[in-house]
Amino acid sequence: MTLLVTGGAGFIGSNFVLDWLAQHDEAVVNLDKLTYAGNPENLATLQGDGRHVFVRGDIGDYGLVLDLLKQYQIRAVVNFAAESHVDRSIHGPEDFIQTNVLGSFRLLEAIRAYWGGLDEAGKSGFRLLHVSTDEVYGSLEKIDPPFAETNQYQPNSPYSASKAASDHLVRAYHHTYGLPVLTTNCSNNYGPYHFPEKLIPLCIQNALAGKPLPIYGDGQQIRDWLYVKDHCSAIRRVLAAGKVGEVYNVGGWNEKANLDVVNVLCAILDELQARADGKSYAEQITYVTDRPGHDRRYAIDAGKLERELGWKPAESFETGIRKTVEWYLANQDWVQNVMSGEYQSWLDKNYAERQA
Ligand code: NAD
Ligand code: DAU
């Protein structure tokens, strides 16, 4: 029995692969294109571990995916592979259409061809778990209830629109062809191996480097934060016991305004690695031009996953964020290695034009 994990060298995918192999002996074939966001170093501890096979490739490569499915007799696919950064989708949406829409389509086609050739037991036991986002539901007002699985899709960014398209394709392949799919829609993750283009790792790095901590707009946008290891445990639970064709929302019950998140980071850094001048890192907070079309609030109702499958997050925001800051302080080599030339040119593109 073998799992095919796509995008398993990225932030959530690599946490998933590491946790999976720490808990199971079931092998993992890890298919990742290694874009700027994919980093084999995340998987360094698996070197020499025969249960992990890394393949550099594209989910949009039908022939490659079909070969892997057949060669390793895959019994489930967990699809993390995607372009994932909203700001990048605003600057250049095309990669998002290529991977999140066309890539997902070709992945589905390869899986359909493979699954169609399995015997009845293989067919009914097979699963495709598609990892998606709460952003497909659009933006909430302060008084709105959190997103339920029944909410209408109202994606607002090229990123969320491309993820919504992939969710619709996955749903359609179940309804039309009977493909045994599961979809999870998760809120904002944070934790180890988070690429430092996203709010939390970016602010940790900028704080330590004495740079501005850029807050888009008024900083009162709300996100629902989930420690990445909790997302991984939710995916394992849905894969093991989720009802075929169903959608499960995953969240941390942790709604926080961006400014509050950054202030918490600064307070932990003040305690663990105080600034040489004795001032707080919060002094580096700088308001910058807002993200175009910025969604005001996301919040997830994860009640279905708790009621039906008994899943709850293990970490509170307070415990998870402290672990995260500690991880970044202890893994500065990892951060320096991912802050390559490409990363520097992204910072120039995204922040140079934002007025302080
Ligand atoms: P990430 O950007 O850190 O990693 C994405 C990985 O996919 C990278 O390793 C990259 O190399 C790989 N990849 C990109 N295009 C590929 C392609 N065409 N073929 C094969 N591999 C490809 O993303 P992440 O934050 O780990 O997110 C993983 C998944 O979870 C995404 O589908 C994302 O939409 C979803 N998600 C993310 C969050 C979050 O807060 N980060 C929350 C909810 C859902
Ligand atoms: O909600 C789930 C989504 O969470 C995932 O689907 C995405 O893949 C993931 O990137 C994340 O999207 P966000 O846009 O919410 O994450 P990001 O870290 O980019 O931004 C978090 C909030 O912080 C958002 O309101 C924008 C704001 N922000 C972000 C950056 C990078 C800033 O204020 N300043 C910044 O420099």
From TrEMBL:
Keywords: Lyase, NAD. GO terms for molecular function: dTDP-glucose 4,6-dehydratase activity. Its cofactor is NAD(+). Residues 4-324 form the NAD(P)-binding domain. It comes from the Bacteria. It catalyses: dTDP-alpha-D-glucose = dTDP-4-dehydro-6-deoxy-alpha-D-glucose + H2O. PANTHER family: DTDP-D-GLUCOSE 4,6-DEHYDRATASE-RELATED (PTHR43000). This is dTDP-glucose 4,6-dehydratase. It comes from Methylomonas koyamae.
